[in-house]
Design a protein that fits this description.
alpha+beta, five-stranded mixed β-sheet, two-stranded antiparallel sheet, 9 strands
């Protein structure tokens, strides 16, 4: 995905992640396309403009580890070695992203399904934990929207007065905490769905079936919404939207 591309939504809330170019081929939607077609950026696209010190530190660590495990070969140009190191350093992130996408897809399928199936342990445990925390609800998976303030999104799971975002993790969840960007994301989703003071929670889950639910206070969510509003205005002004 190019630096100018991202997730976009039509004014009616339909995803518009790709577009047919002038050559007749499908490609990622860009800011220029968004201006031409009156599309709105996703919540996550807007959040990506904010600094993420924790993520940046982790990325730097992956580069250092790759450099330590991939020594420069005899006669290898420095540029080629650096390309190998950078490519290898990104592999862990790619694998995590692919794993997360797969798990999100299975969870979505579970909450959309009406037929009995055999589900992975993490799906069963996630549903059990959510039911224990929120009670029995009429859940809807992957609801998309566009808000009149100029942003859109797709919510992992929602019910009347409840918004949930899944976060997949590897390993123990004991020390897992929600970042401020997670609160901004949920606060924006709540406003986007016109839910007012909805209960908002991050549900962390790993492949072993461990689940940790972190529900956020209304005070923290209100603060996070104000922060998101500032990022939204910055993004719209910067990109002439």
């Amino acid at each position: 995905m190019s630096s100018e591309s991202g997730h976009w939504y039509t004014q009616s809330g339909d995803p518009a992640y790709t577009i047919i170019g002038k050559n007749g081929k499908e490609r990622n939607t860009t800011v220029k396309d968004a201006r031409e077609h009156n599309l709105v950026p996703s919540v996550t696209t807007i959040l990506n403009i904010a600094a993420k010190p924790g993520l940046n530190n982790w990325l730097q660590q992956q580069v250092l580890l790759a450099a330590l495990t991939l020594p420069r070969m005899d006669g290898e140009p420095e540029a080629d070695w650096l390309d190998r190191v950078m490519s290898d350093s990104r592999s862990t992130g790619r694998q995590a992203a692919e794993r997360g996408t797969t798990m999100h897809g299975v969870l979505e399928k579970f909450y959309r399904s009406t037929e009995p199936q055999i589900w992975p342990l993490y799906v069963i445990e996630t549903d059990r934990a959510i039911t224990e925390h929120f009670g029995k609800q009429d859940w809807t998976a992957e609801t998309s929207f566009a808000h009149y303030l100029g942003f859109g999104g797709k919510i992992d799971l929602s019910a009347p007065g409840i918004v949930i975002d899944f976060k997949t993790k590897e390993g123990s969840l004991d020390k897992v905490t929600a970042y401020h960007e997670h609160l901004m994301q949920l606060a924006a989703y709540s406003v986007g769905l016109d839910m007012g003071e909805a209960r908002c929670a991050n549900v962390f889950v790993n492949e072993q079936g461990d689940v940790k639910i972190i529900e956020h206070s209304q005070e923290d969510l209100e603060n996070a919404w104000h922060c998101f509003e500032c990022l939204l205005q910055f993004y719209k002004i910067k990109n002439n939207l």
